[in-house]
Prior knowledge:
- The structure is a single chain.
- The protein is α/β, with parallel strands linked by helices and 430 residues long.
- The chain is 39% helix and 15% strand.
- The radius of gyration is 23 Å and the shape is globular.
- It starts with 16 loop residues before the first helix and ends with a helix.
Amino acid sequence: MELQMVNNQTWSLEMSEFARKTDNPLRKIWESPKNIPNPSIKLITLQIGDPTVFKNFLAAPESKEAIKNALEYDNFSYTVSPGLESSREAVAEYVNKNYESLTNLEDLQPLTSKDVILASGCSMALEMCFRVLANPGDNILLPQPCWGYSTWIVGCGIDVRYFNLDPMKEWEVDLDHLESMINEKTKAILINNPGNPCGNVYSKEHLLDILKVAERHKLPIIADEVYEFFTFPGVQFYPMAALSKNVPILTCSGLTKRFIMPAARMGWIVINDRNNILSDVRKGLFNIAGRNFWPNSTLTKALPDILKNTPQKFFDDNSSTVYKHALSAYKILKTCVGIIPIMPKGAMYLMAKIELEKFPKMETCFDFTQKLLNELSVAVFPGYPCFNFPGFFRIVLTVPEEMIIEACERIKQFCEKHSKIDSEKYLKSG
Length: 430
């Protein structure tokens, strides 16, 4: 039987505004059909921040053992929305222990399970914070450059306003610019420390200066600390909440980076609120947790043992290895014509400035990275659109060191070929 047209109308279906406004520039570039390397040269990708890809960074045996044990006794029943209380208590104890390890801090109020909400990864934890604090038409302040937080914000009708980080000052926040971005619709400031894509790790003094701005304007801080304590030799990480006396902090973290478990999708929110300013927001977060149901039951049950049993040596070895990779990349890139690398202090990334005036055939950092891929099969992310920061590119430092060295040598070759300064010399020698 033929389908009948009702009232002479035809089908007309469009995506929602939420879907239309949801955009992940990193995934878009990574999965683009134009992402074509030179078929005669082996591809080296320094794009995706998954440390497990080449199996040179893997989760600790203690983490795997915890999951095996949890799986054996897991009957896959529903759990409570914010996560099992025993697992939330384990997160609170883990955070308290980390705070206690720091010196020269004010007396801290111990956290409990009531201050913790589990989520399916740190990205979901962040989205919950965005949604609980802002309504459509409100705005959240993001650093520039930054990871793709806007993917989780703009689709909800929430606006973003960007404040500058200064690459010449180890990516510190431009405090005057931060303050100039605040208006009556601003609901929160996001601070990513240690940072992606910059590898910044802020000093205690700088974090206190940021807190002064937040307190002056009565704004909470969303602290993305998924790279917590992932710092290089001689660099101290300070959790934002450990320094704050008056500003409420929603700290988001998880197993993804420090524990090298990106696909475990286990994250959390820690509500740091010494003065009970977030009483209504706290209720809202638990409401949203009910909407999202709960994280994976096996990982939830394994979480206490993962947090308790992973040895410090595991963390130290990983950060030392990434530091070694960073040094190798930095040493080569700083010899490249038209490239100014910024040595990171932690996390898993290095950002480098492209002096585009020295590359007359490339107008943007996207042109530079696309041509680098097409000619020499090195894949890196451009500063724009990926991180809202034109004129730079980012490399990932968890790739095996020999691949990083080879990729950076290719970048050097590419710069020598295409720079206005060396192109004529290169053509003559070729």
